[in-house]
């Protein structure tokens, strides 16, 4: 299902199993190749400790999309990409090969049995707030950033991530 006009949406990307950097790069490429989706920009790549879970560190980023898809249709695309990447859900907050979450969909507020937008915990996670602050600093407050200061996170340099091939759209 499509919208009449393109909407900006922000999607959180994360992985902590397998080659996480490759999984995130591939996810961005696949998103950009989807009908009705264009990746506009990506944040830097971050390494962060799992929150409310055990396992290896995550690599995280945020992608800004322009999409003509309806929110539920975008969610279905994201879930299909997760499955293609080998995502399993054996228990809550299990380590994962790929995690794709709709953080914001324009200014919409959605609460259905399958989708909540804005993402209910976006403002509690450094691995979401710091990348969003790169892309849309006007939407992130100092108080929000201060609220996640105790979470271990570091911006990392990853050459492949810094030179995307999905149309030459530069990262922030």
TrEMBL record:
<dbReference type="Pfam" id="PF01288">
    <property type="entry name" value="HPPK"/>
</dbReference>
<keyword id="KW-0547">Nucleotide-binding</keyword>
<keyword id="KW-0067">ATP-binding</keyword>
<keyword id="KW-0418">Kinase</keyword>
<comment type="similarity">
    <text>Belongs to the HPPK family.</text>
</comment>
<feature type="domain" description="7,8-dihydro-6-hydroxymethylpterin-pyrophosphokinase">
    <location>
        <begin position="92"/>
        <end position="103"/>
    </location>
</feature>
<keyword id="KW-0289">Folate biosynthesis</keyword>
<keyword id="KW-0808">Transferase</keyword>
<dbReference type="InterPro" id="IPR000550">
    <property type="entry name" value="Hppk"/>
</dbReference>
<protein>
    <recommendedName>
        <fullName>2-amino-4-hydroxy-6-hydroxymethyldihydropteridine pyrophosphokinase</fullName>
        <ecNumber>2.7.6.3</ecNumber>
    </recommendedName>
</protein>
<dbReference type="GO" id="GO:0003848">
    <property type="term" value="F:2-amino-4-hydroxy-6-hydroxymethyldihydropteridine diphosphokinase activity"/>
</dbReference>
<comment type="pathway">
    <text>Cofactor biosynthesis; tetrahydrofolate biosynthesis; 2-amino-4-hydroxy-6-hydroxymethyl-7,8-dihydropteridine diphosphate from 7,8-dihydroneopterin triphosphate: step 4/4.</text>
</comment>
<comment type="function">
    <text>Catalyzes the transfer of pyrophosphate from adenosine triphosphate (ATP) to 6-hydroxymethyl-7,8-dihydropterin, an enzymatic step in folate biosynthesis pathway.</text>
</comment>
<dbReference type="InterPro" id="IPR035907">
    <property type="entry name" value="Hppk_sf"/>
</dbReference>
């Amino acid at each position: 299902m499509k919208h009449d006009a393109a909407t900006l949406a922000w999607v959180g990307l994360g992985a902590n199993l397998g080659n996480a950097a490759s999984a995130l790069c591939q996810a961005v490429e696949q998103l950009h190749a989807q009908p009705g989706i264009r990746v506009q920009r990506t944040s830097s790549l971050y390494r962060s400790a799992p929150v409310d879970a055990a396992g290896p560190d995550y690599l995280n980023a945020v992608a800004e999309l322009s999409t003509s898809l309806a929110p539920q249709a975008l969610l279905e695309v994201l879930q299909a990409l997760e499955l293609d990447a080998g995502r399993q859900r054996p228990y809550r907050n299990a380590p994962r090969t790929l995690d794709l979450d709709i953080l914001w969909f324009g200014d919409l507020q959605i609460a259905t049995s399958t989708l909540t937008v804005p993402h209910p915990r976006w403002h509690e996670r450094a691995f979401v707030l710091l990348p969003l602050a790169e892309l849309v600093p006007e939407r992130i407050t100092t108080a929000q950033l201060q609220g996640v200061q105790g979470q271990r996170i570091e911006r990392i340099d990853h050459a492949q991530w810094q030179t995307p091939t999905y149309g030459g759209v530069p990262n922030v």
